[in-house]
UniProtKB/TrEMBL annotation:
PANTHER family linked: AMINOTRANSFERASE (PTHR43094), AMINOTRANSFERASE CLASS-III (PTHR43094:SF1)
Pfam families cross-referenced by the UniProt entry: Aminotran_3
Lineage of source species: Bacteria, Pseudomonadati, Pseudomonadota, Alphaproteobacteria, Hyphomicrobiales
Molecular function, one GO term: pyridoxal phosphate binding
Protein's organism: Ciceribacter lividus
Similarity comment: Belongs to the class-III pyridoxal-phosphate-dependent aminotransferase family.
Alphabetically ordered keywords of this record: Aminotransferase, Pyridoxal phosphate, Transferase
Protein's name according to its UniProt entry: Adenosylmethionine-8-amino-7-oxononanoate aminotransferase
Tree of life domain: Bacteria
InterPro entries: Aminotrans_3, Aminotrans_3_PPA_site, PyrdxlP-dep_Trfase, PyrdxlP-dep_Trfase_major, PyrdxlP-dep_Trfase_small
Cofactor: pyridoxal 5'-phosphate
NCBIfam families with a match to the protein in the record: PRK07481.1
Length: 450
């Protein structure tokens, strides 16, 4: 490995970081992570940190998941690549599809289309939704609806349904025909409603209103995250997703669950949809499907949607979408091993218990630190602290101050993620109660530095 000085000096000279201003990366160089073990990471200066970010919501099983590493190495030896485009396939994707069908059976999803990551999965799901309606003779159903504050990746369709202007404005014009409705975000919402259940009803009424305004026969799908993640961890009230399911069914609109973060145990249930008792028509997955060790994803399709494609005799059911790395045999080998470990370790159960402890601990921190305006979580291991400079006006805390919280928490041995005025926590799902206590005490120190 190159020296620490070389790495620090050269990082931003040639490398542009996703979601960062190039000038900012030069002025304040990022932390260079060089090792990972268990739930910890080590930076280039030998500083050991508990990774409360879990990579990027994906390293659910930590950094030492031997079965996944071994499966990747063994597959590289046996068959490092072959495509599954029409005419060929590989043994791993066949086995994986069977395992995924079993895993997602309670969600009513039984067919898999493989991708190289979350943005790809979103893109495919949106394309399949339009195609589904075309096959059925409803070619006018081309529009998409989604929630403000939702995050659906970087590709153009995904960015078009994205509900955060930061990820949109520099790239406009995006796809026409994409419309957004208010998020069930209790802390800030256009209705000034602080009761989550009443807010859910208001947001659902806004969805129905938008559908009628657009004309239901023009809408292909509604896409939502069961718990909004990158937008600042916004868990909707339990009535929201079932209500949305009912509205979509009423108007013949497909419901796409974007579970790039929530699938495989993050919410304390095996999937976010199951968490809310909802069966989506399509489900996007990626991230934890390989524990972050290999870029991979899968779009799961319901029986009813699948049948429309499979029984089509017009030719419209031919899937004109695919990635060179769709069904990559190494990714599939990693996913098979990962699914087995995910189930063997019953990580969803641990995520639920540790998530409750973390959420309770964060609520306790709120009584101590005036900068915490809102604490969100309570649905497994995804939580956020929204920091404000004044609780009364809810004015977001400034960048420098939240940077300070991050730095002091880091010095105390815990990596957290800053997104806008939120501190986001999405640790590996294998963390222990001691790890939770460590996250809380480091954050306590970080907040005390304000
Ligand atoms: N959808 C959701 C809900 C996500 O959280 C993300 C990534 N954070 C994506 C899509 C995009 O996934 P990727 O970064 O793997 O392309």
């Amino acid at each position: 490995m190159k020296t620490s000085n070389y790495l620090k000096e050269n990082n931003a000279k040639r490398l542009w970081h996703p979601m960062a201003h190039p000038a900012e990366s030069l002025a304040s160089p990022p932390d260079i992570i060089v090792e990972g073990e268990g739930v910890e990471i080590v930076d280039v200066d030998g500083h050991r940190l508990l990774d409360a970010v879990g990579g990027l919501w994906n390293v659910n099983l930590g950094y030492s998941c031997e079965p996944v590493k071994k499966a990747i190495a063994a597959q590289l030896d046996r068959l490092p690549y072959y495509s599954i485009f029409r005419g060929t396939t590989n043994d791993n994707v066949i086995e994986l599809s069977e395992m995924l069908a079993e895993f997602f059976a309670p969600d009513g999803l039984s067919r898999a289309f493989f991708t190289s990551g979350g943005s790809d999965s979103v893109e495919i799901a949106l394309r399949l939704a339009r195609q589904y309606h075309k096959i059925r003779g409803e070619a006018g159903r081309v529009k998409f609806l989604s929630l403000k504050k939702g995050y659906h990746g970087t590709h153009t369709l995904g960015a078009s349904v994205n509900g955060n202007s930061n990820f949109r404005t520099q790239y406009e014009p995006l796809m026409p025909g994409c419309f957004h409705t208010p998020a069930p975000y209790t802390y800030r919402n256009p209705f000034n409603e602080s009761d989550p259940e009443r807010l859910a009803q208001l947001c659902l009424a806004a969805v129905e209103d938008e559908i009628k305004f657009q004309d239901p026969s023009t809408i292909a799908a509604f896409i939502m995250e069961p718990v909004l993640g990158a937008g600042g961890v916004i868990p909707p009230h339990k009535s929201f997703m079932p209500g949305l399911r009912a509205i979509c069914s009423k108007y013949g609109i497909l419901l796409i669950a974007d579970e790039v973060i929530t699938a495989f145990g993050r919410t304390g249930s095996w999937t976010g949809s199951r968490h809310w008792g909802v069966q989506p028509d399509l489900l996007c997955s990626a991230k934890a499907i390989t524990n972050g060790y290999f870029p991979f994803g899968a779009v799961m399709v319901s029986d009813a949607v699948a049948e429309v494609f499979e029984k089509d005799t017009s030719g419209k059911g031919a899937i004109g979408s695919g990635y060179t790395y769709s069904g990559h045999p190494v990714g599939a080998a990693a996913a098979i091993a990962c699914l087995k470990e995910t189930e063997r370790l019953q990580v969803a159960t641990n995520a639920a218990s540790r998530g409750d402890e973390l959420f309770a601990g964060l609520q306790a921190l709120m009584t101590k630190h005036g900068a915490i305006g809102d604490v969100r979580g309570g649905e497994g291991l995804m939580c956020a602290l929204e920091l404000v400079s004044d609780r009364g006006s809810k004015a977001p805390i400034d960048k420098k101050s939240i940077g300070k919280v991050h730095r002091v928490t880091y010095e105390a041995g815990v990596m957290v993620r800053v997104s806008g005025n939120n501190i986001i926590l999405s640790p590996p799902l294998i963390i222990t109660a001691t790890d939770v206590a460590k996250i809380l005490s480091a954050l306590d120190a970080g907040l005390a530095a304000l």
